[in-house]
Amino acid sequence: MPLTPAIEEPQIHESAQGPRVTPAASRTAQTPRPVPGPRPAAVPRPGRPGPARPAPPAQRAPQATPGPVPAAPAAAHTAPSVSAAVPQIQLIPASAEGALDAAEEAVDLLLDTGRAPGDILVLSSGDPHPWAAHELSFGEAAYWALHDAGDDVFYADAAQVQRAASRPVVVFAANGGAVDTIAGALPVALTRAGALLIVCGDPQQINSVLGAGV
Question: Per the confidence metrics, is the pTM higher than 0.70?
Answer without folding.
Answer: no
